[in-house]
Design a protein that fits this description.
- By secondary structure, the protein is mostly beta strands.
- It has one domain (about 1-755): Maltoporin, Chain A.
- Helices cover about 5% and strands about 55% of the residues.
- The strands form five sheets. It has a 28-stranded mixed β-sheet that branches. Strands 1-6-7-4-5 form a five-stranded mixed β-sheet.
- A hairpin with a 6-residue loop joins strand 15 (about 305) and strand 16.
- The longest helix has 21 residues, at about 1-20.
- The chain is globular, with a radius of gyration of 26 Å.
- It starts with a helix and ends with a strand.
Length: about 750
């Protein structure tokens, strides 16, 4: 075994010098928090990484968790771009990566992948959070950095492992959530209600345990988009007279605009059905099956601030009486049904544990329809020509097998290894429609097509060895082979069949942990990771609303070399952690957003020669700071810049998109009695940017990125052992801020829950 460790150490030496090219590297760690779980997977995954754990009690007490992504709201360094309740597109921003880098995060639930590596964006690349309900969560573990060989290069930013419960006896629960947002921006003054109903039922019958869950969300959102007109005056009506209304403002580049309305006022009706079955086969061997079905019915509407200067009627003009395209693109409906399956077989023994999981996620049907720009509003509200984009058949399958051998029966020496294969399929076709309100009127020939496939295969091994009682060394490596093929793009300009692509990469890892005493420890970790282009980055060209995404079939994989040093103090009252981190990424895949024409946003994914990010993170969790008062807090400083970019020299030295210098959270919970908990929370970020060259100097406007400071309040009342109530106010200070889109203003939530 010593020879294998030496070989892996030599491989690691290949990656380490590149870090020195940029700067001296350091980074984070968190003490491993042991929580009993149902899966042998827990005994195999011993990642040498900083870890933050959120428990079921934390969620119930401290977080207004309407959906699963809310449970990470106060995790150090993370930002979840959840624009509103019912938002389908909620990616994670991490210490060193922004909101457009969804493929740099891994999200699992009981070993089942929830990340959607169809794209690397804040759209269809967002995780499939809806496959988990907050009620079934036992804990959520957040890992920082690509330091475990067990995970692919998508772990550059973070890995989120959600562990859910499986019932040991008859159980049932009901929950009702009512949310009310009061939104006021420009001339949009709306009270936006949301209702959510969820129920679970589970039982254990001999060796078989069953769990079923259903959630319905009926939500209304604030505007997703703002419609603007360049210049200081309004457009003219059809008679050539200036329209009345609108607001003078500036865009993110500082140019004068008129705000003439809003769009994407969404009404979501979403259902999630879930069934989990687990069968004990004897000998600590278990077989599990998961079925998830998610449906979405979304209507997006618009509001114009303009009135005709001639007739006084509502006007939707955007270009001197000749076009309504700015409003039309924000008017749409979506209909989708996605189905997920997962089968897990696992076993556990004193010296050997193993875990095999296969998953499938399939877009049974997924379509979004909008009126054509040539169909004038308000007539388009009742139909007319349009287009529909269908993604039916898009999806992915994965297979993971892994095992851990403990020669001595404990964690003093653990040898783990495994294999992985996945396949992603993109199928996006746009058709012309006679009536955009009725998909049955679509034509049979696609006006635009984006298709393609990717596959990744990998093997990995990792050796964790206690050199002394105080010193533990972990060495590992992951070898990956990637292929992209069947690429096809069809536009009005013609059809292009893309060439097949292949690549491979070796990712060595190393970590050394020193436990000075029972309270103080330090861990130094290094790792290389290859993140291969997603099928969407390579092949998807589509327009959804005002977002135009352009593919690049010649993208190269990005190579990250990361390091972290973490110092942790732990005692009976909690932990304090200081983490130093450093990351260099060559050929970084970054989606750069530019405005080509008013109301249309274009995103170009490109290889940036090199980016560099370094910083520090301070996090603490302390119980009974004062009698019955618990505190958790974190502050992160990151200097994440473009360090080399031959294609765009003006971006060198500038902050990476949506990665601010500062992020901070503070959560204080006062347990007034054993049944009453009162929580106040604060979250903030400093100014950040949308563009690589940071020329978007105005952040507090549509398409801008701005700083924010938000205060949340929550009161939880455990009325009886079976019944609880909670009341929350998010953004109680009513901070009106933009992260490209307008974000939620002050909103109120009431929750009532019952369990058997």
């Amino acid at each position: 075994m010593k020879s294998s460790c030496i070989a892996l150490a030599a491989a690691l030496a290949y990656a380490a010098p590149a870090l020195a090219e940029e700067a001296q590297a350091d980074a984070p760690h968190h003490p491993e928090i042991v929580v009993t779980g149902h899966h042998a997977d827990d005994r195999i995954d011993l990642p040498p990484s900083t870890r933050q754990t959120v428990t079921a009690e934390d969620i119930a007490t401290k977080v207004n968790a309407v959906s699963v992504e809310d449970t990470l709201k106060y995790a150090p360094s993370l930002i979840i771009r959840k624009r509103h309740i019912g938002d389908n597109f909620a990616p994670i921003a991490t210490r060193t990566s922004g909101l457009g880098a969804s493929a740099r995060s891994l999200i699992y639930a009981d070993g089942v992948l929830l990340s959607a590596f169809i794209g690397n964006n804040n759209g269809n690349g967002s995780p499939r959070w809806t496959l988990v309900t907050p009620e079934e969560i036992a804990r959520v573990d957040v890992l920082y950095g690509p330091f475990s060989a067990a995970y692919p290069g998508n772990a550059i930013g973070t890995t989120v492992n959600i562990t859910t419960r499986q019932p040991d006896k008859l159980e049932a629960s009901l929950r009702v959530v009512s949310n009310l947002q009061v939104f006021d921006l420009y001339d949009t003054h709306r009270t936006l209600p949301t209702q959510q109903y969820s129920a679970t039922l589970g039982d254990r019958i001999g060796p078989l345990s069953l769990f079923a869950a259903f959630t319905r969300t009926d939500a209304e959102s604030q505007p997703v988009s703002v419609n603007t007109f360049n210049g200081t005056t309004n457009p003219k009506d059809s008679a050539g007279v200036l329209t009345v209304g609108g607001f003078a403002d500036v865009n993110r580049l500082g140019a004068a605009i008129r705000v003439i309305g809003v769009g994407g006022l969404e009404h979501h009706v979403q259902d999630t059905w879930k069934l989990k079955a687990r069968l004990d086969l004897g000998g600590n061997v278990h077989l599990s099956y998961l079925l998830g079905v998610w449906t979405d019915d979304t209507q997006g509407t618009v509001q114009s601030y303009l009135q005709s200067g001639t007739t006084g009627a509502v006007s939707y003009l955007t270009a001197n009486g000749t076009s309504t395209s700015g409003f039309n693109s924000a008017l749409y409906w979506r209909d989708a049904r996605h189905t997920a399956h997962a089968v897990t077989l696992e076993g556990s023994a004193s010296h050997f544990d193993w875990h095999i999981v296969g998953t499938s996620y399939h877009y049974d049907h997924d379509l979004q329809s909008s009126p054509a720009a040539s169909v004038a509003l308000p007539a388009a509200l009742n139909g007319g020509a349009g287009s529909v984009q269908r993604q039916d058949g898009t999806g992915w399958v994965t297979l993971d097998a892994k095992a851990a051998w403990r020669p001595g029966g404990d964690n003093a020496h653990v040898i783990s290894f495994g294999g992985h294969v996945d396949r992603y399929v993109l199928s996006a076709n746009t058709f012309a429609e006679t009536s955009w309100l009725d998909a049955a009127t679509q034509g049979t020939t696609a006006t635009a097509t984006s298709r393609g496939r990717t596959r990744t295969a990998a093997i990995w091994a990792q050796d964790q060895l206690a050199l002394t009682p105080a010193l533990t060394l972990t060495l590992g490596a992951r070898q990956e082979w990637w292929r992209a093929w069947d690429g096809l793009n069809v536009t009005a300009a013609g059809s292009v069949t893309q060439a097949e692509r292949t690549a491979n990469g070796l990712s060595p890892k190393a970590s050394l942990e020193w436990k000075a005493n029972d309270h103080l420890s330090a861990r130094l970790s290094f790792g290389q990771a290859w993140r291969f282009p997603t099928v969407g980055e390579l092949y998807q060209a589509t327009t959804i609303g005002t977002q135009l995404a352009n593919p690049n079939p010649n993208l190269r994989p990005e190579r990250a070399r990361s390091a972290e040093l973490a110092l942790v103090y732990a005692d009976a009252k909690g932990t304090v952690r200081l983490s130093l981190f450093h990351e260099v990424i060559d050929d970084a895949l970054i989606s750069q957003t530019n405005i080509n024409t008013p109301g249309i946003t274009s995103a170009y994914v490109q290889n940036v020669d090199r980016t560099r990010a370094r910083g520090l993170e301070l996090a603490l969790e302390r119980q009974d700071v004062l009698p019955r008062l618990d505190l958790s807090a974190s502050v992160t400083y990151a200097d994440a810049i473009t360090s080399k970019n031959s294609g765009f020299p003006g971006s060198v030295g500038k902050l990476l998109p949506s990665v601010p210098h500062w992020k901070a959270n503070l959560v204080a919970t006062y347990r007034a009695t054993d049944r009453i908990a009162l929580t106040a929370a604060y979250r903030m970020t400093s100014r950040n940017f949308a563009t690589l060259d940071n020329i978007d100097t105005v952040g507090q406007t549509y398409q801008g990125f701005w700083k924010y400071s938000v205060i949340d309040l929550r009161a939880r009342f455990q009325v009886t052992d079976r019944f609880e109530l909670a009341a929350s106010v998010d953004n109680v200070n009513n901070n009106k801020y933009f992260l490209f889109h307008p974000f939620p203003q002050r909103n109120f939530t009431l929750q009532a829950g019952w369990k058997l």
